[in-house]
Structures are given as C-alpha cells and as structure tokens.
Write a structure and sequence with these properties.
Blueprint: E1 6-11, H1 14-30, E2 35-40, H2 42-45, E3 50-54, H3 64-68, H4 70-86, E4 91-95, H5 98-110, E5 115-118, H6 131-137, E6 140-143, H7 146-154, E7 159-161, H8 165-169, H9 176-182, E8 191-195, H10 200-220, E9 225-230, H11 233-243, E10 251-255, H12 258-263, E11 267-271, H13 275-281, E12 286-290, H14 294-303, H15 311-316, E13 323-325, H16 331-343, H17 345-362, H18 366-382
Parallel strand pairs: 1-2, 1-4, 2-3, 4-5, 5-6, 6-7, 8-9, 8-11, 9-10, 11-12, 12-13
Helix pairs in contact: 1-18, 4-5, 5-6, 10-11, 10-16
C-alpha cells in the first residue's frame, strides 16, 4: 500500500490563507489521505493543515520591516526547505508572497521536488526579466487572470489560468437595494462612493481631491450622497479630520465595509488597485485615479510595460473606464468623468454589459480548477 501524498503549502497573508483552504478541499477530493503542511492561517488549519509557523510571521509590509526581520525570514525559509526536502514532499505550492516563496521554490526544484506557484506576481506589468527566475522556480504557474497566462505562454512557462476567486464569490447581479438597506442609506437617492486608498499617504494625496470632486458634482446633483469606507481605524480618523472641512457634504463614513459601500453606489471614484476589480465585478461604473510623488512617478512610468493601470482596462484590453493619473487628476477632469455616468444612462448600461462579460471570463473554476491542474501535474510525475 502506497504512503499518503505529502503536499506543502506556504501562504503569507489572509488572501493566501483563503486560497490555500480552497485548494486543500479541492485536492482532498482526489487524495483524501494526503497530508498538508507548511505555513498557513486559520482557514487552512480548519481543513486539517499543519502549520510549522504562525502565518503572521511572513506578513511584512513596506521596505524597512522586511529588512529588520530578514534574519528571521531567512531562518524560516531554511527550515521549510529542510523539512520539505528531508521528508521528500510530493509537491510544494507557494501561494502568492513571491518574495518569500519563489526563492524557496527554486531551491526545492533544484533538489528534484515538484513545485507550483498560485497567484502570479505582476511580472507582466514591470520588471519583466523576473520571468526567468520564475521559469527556473516552478513546474507550474496558476494565474487568476487570463492575460497573465498569455504572458507566461509567451515565455514558455507552464501555466494554467484558473480564474479569480472574487468572480466566483460575487454574484453576477448585485443587489444594490439590499446594500443600501444594510447601510441605512436612501434607497432611491444618488450615491457616489469615494475610496481614496488604504494607506495614510494615499488618503493624504487623494482624500481632499476626491472630496473637492464630490463638492463639484453636488452643484449639478444637489441630492448627491457620499459613502466613504475607511480601510482601518487610523484611516477613519484621518478621513474624519478631512470631512470636518466639508460640512455641506452629505456623507456616510464607514470603518471597513468597502464591499457594501461599492455595492450601494451608483458610481465609484477610487484609487488604482485591486478594488477596481471588485468594483467591476459588482457592476459599478468607476473613475480611477492616482497620484505619486513627481520623481517616483517618473521612475514607475518608465518601468511600466502596460498601457493601463486598472484591472478592468487590462482585462478588456481597452480603455473601458477613465484613468486620470498624476497631472490629469484634477477636480475638473474627475468631476466631468463622474458626472458623465450620472447623466448618461446609455453609457452606464453599455459599460455594465462589458463588465458582465468580463465577470464571466473570470469564472474559470477557481480552486477546483487549481486543484485539477495540480492533480494533473502530480500524475504526470508519477507516469
């Protein structure tokens, strides 16, 4: 009788924990006796996973914290490497956290272990040379977005597009009325949701600009109500301070609840980032903006290899939604873009039709498809 499969999983943050838990469930359908070990959070633990370290030991932010914690992080990676190689794991999957996982995967693969990576880094957008390291680190890349898979195919990296978990979770039809009821908002009023970012620097850069835009829009839409979800308690206090300068605005300020805040909106004005994907899946017309320091922007714009920054535009390969960045991020430009949605129902309906099509393309099996791709990889190795 053959011994149970040993599968290593390494997740470094809550989104990875959620993907990891779904992956374990999917793989157990094929290998009910398999053992799952590595690093994961509560959701993975609830599926019978054994975590060798608390997941939060890998959750580091910014530039300084990783440097301070480098000796500890290298020690954890060294221990994982020894654990997976000494026990000859059948497969090791790094889930996101590429700075930690890709180096580990490369060393394991050099020792003959089968490796995969779940969630592509943004190698298609900048520093494309990293694809060479990825090619040497993984036997298979699992991507959430279709254009990522196209990029890897062009560079001869084995890849499977599995779809985005958010596209599976979010219904194709958004219940905006229910979202408004939950947040005690007027059911039939016009609502603009503002999301200037989750970091203090982003709110510093975009908070007052977005409120100026709302004030400008309100002159043409007198009953306009604003919803502003703060990403944390600190951002709540920061935004509250800003709102004191705008006593005439009608505002609901929330701590968290960004999903509901977007679901309740007619239009969303937001900073560039992953929230643009969620807004698209909720079928919400949006205007995307961002501002960086002058020199940072000059550097980043030179390194970027893609014509757009928002995920809806990247997915559609066209300018579906306005992106008003840097010097183009003015009150007039942003106000005009927001008002165009409120005043042109045909424009909104056409956009929502495209969003629905894109939503369907991202429903590609998710964890079920990821699990099947890894089963195929394992079975190929066994042949």
């Amino acid at each position: 009788m053959s011994s149970p499969l040993k599968i290593g999983l390494v997740a470094g943050e809550s989104s990875g924990d959620q993907l990891g838990a779904g992956l374990i469930r999917s793989l157990k359908l094929h290998y009910p006796e398999a053992q799952f070990e590595g690093i994961g959070g509560d959701k993975m633990l609830s599926e019978g996973f054994r975590s060798l370290y608390p997941m939060d030991r890998l959750s580091v932010m910014g530039f300084i914290e990783p440097l301070k914690r480098l000796p500890e992080l290298l020690g954890i990676r060294r221990h994982l490497y020894q654990h997976f190689t000494n026990n000859r794991f059948d497969l090791v999957v790094g889930i996101d956290s590429p700075d930690f996982n890709l180096g580990l995967e490369k060393k394991l693969r050099q020792q003959g272990l089968l490796t995969a990576h779940y969630v592509s880094p943004s190698v298609w957008a900048w520093r494309q040379g990293r694809v060479k390291k990825i090619a040497s680190a993984v036997d298979l890349m699992l991507t959430l977005l279709p254009f990522e898979a196209d990029f890897y195919k062009q560079h001869d990296v084995p890849v499977v597009f599995v779809g985005h978990p958010l596209a599976e979770e979010i219904p194709l039809v958004t219940d905006s009325i229910q979202a408004r009821k939950t947040l005690n908002l007027p059911e039939d009023g016009r609502i603009l949701t503002l999301m200037p970012g989750s970091r203090a620097s982003e709110v510093d850069s975009l908070g007052r600009l977005f409120l100026d835009v709302a004030q400008s829009c309100r002159r043409q839409l007198p009953g306009l109500h604003l919803v502003v979800p703060a990403a944390s308690h600190d951002r709540l206090e920061q935004l509250n301070g800003l709102l004191n300068e705008y006593p005439e605005l009608s505002v609901t300020l929330l701590e968290g609840q960004s999903h509901l805040a977007m679901a309740a909106a007619d239009v969303v004005l937001l900073s560039s980032g992953t929230s643009t994907l969620e807004a698209m899946l909720l079928n919400k017309p949006m205007v995307v903006s961002y501002r960086l320091g002058k020199w940072t922007y000059a550097l980043v714009s030179r390194m970027l290899k893609v014509p757009w920054v928002s995920l809806p535009n990247l997915l559609a390969s066209e300018a579906l939604v306005p992106e008003l960045l840097q010097d183009n991020a003015t009150v007039d430009n942003l106000s005009n873009a927001v008002l165009a949605y409120f005043l042109d129902e045909k424009k909104v309906l056409a956009l929502q039709h495209r969003f629905a099509e894109l939503h369907q393309t991202l429903r590609h099996g998710g964890n079920r498809a990821a699990g099947q791709a890894l089963v195929d990889l394992l079975e190929d190795r066994r042949r």
